[in-house]
Amino acid sequence: MERVARTSIVDVVVARLRDQIHNGNWPVGTKVPTEAKLVEALGVSRPSVREAVRALVQVGLLESRQGDGTYVVADDEAAVALQQAVDAADDGEVLVVRRALDVLAAQQAARHRTRADVAALRASLVARRAAIADSNMAAFIHHDIAFHVGVARAAHNGLLLMLYKSFENSMRDSILQLNCIAEIGGLHPEFHEVLLVAVERGDHRGAARAAIGVLDDHERLLYAVGS
User: Fold this and answer.
1) CB within 10 Å: which end of the chain, N or C, has fewer?
2) Class assignment of domain 9-75?
C-alpha cells in the first residue's frame, strides 16, 4: 500500500483559489484580490500565495496584467487546454473539424431552438448586415462569430457549445485573413439567412445544408486569397 502524499500549503491555496473560480464566486473578468488580502484571508505566507497564483496563470485560469493586477480569464482548465489545441492546429484540420461541428450544431439547433434563441440569432444577423454596410470589420467579426456561436448555443448541448467556442480564435483569424468585408458580405445566396430560416422552422436537413453552404463559400474565398 502506497503512503498518502503530503499536501503542500501551495497545493491547498491553489485548490482554494480554484474553488472560488469554479463556484462562481470569481466569474470570468473578476479582478482577484491583492496578494496582501489573500494572505490575510487564507492565513498563509506571501510566497505561498504568489506561487499558487502563478500556477493558475500557467493553466490559463488567471492572467497577470502589468500594473493592473490579476484577473480571472477562464473558469475551466479543460476548455483552456482545448482552446490551446485548436489554436495550435493546422488550418486544414480546423476546417474539417469545424465543418462537422457546424453541421451538428445546425441540426441540433433546428431541433431544440427556442424563441429567444431565434431572436438572438436574428439580432446578430441584423448587426452583421449593419457592419457590412458600414465596412466595419471589427463589428462584422464580432457579430459573425456571435451568430455562429449562437447557433451552437441554440442546440442546448453544453459540451457541443464548449467545443464550438474553442474555435472562436481560429474563426476570427480566418476572417481577418480574408480582409475583404465587401466580398464576405456579398456572397450569394446568403447562407447565413437561409440557416436562420431553417433553424426557426425546425428544418434540420435544411439547416445542415445551409451550414455547409456557409463554410463552402468561406473556403472558396480563403482559396482565392491564398492563390
Assistant:
1) N
2) mainly alpha
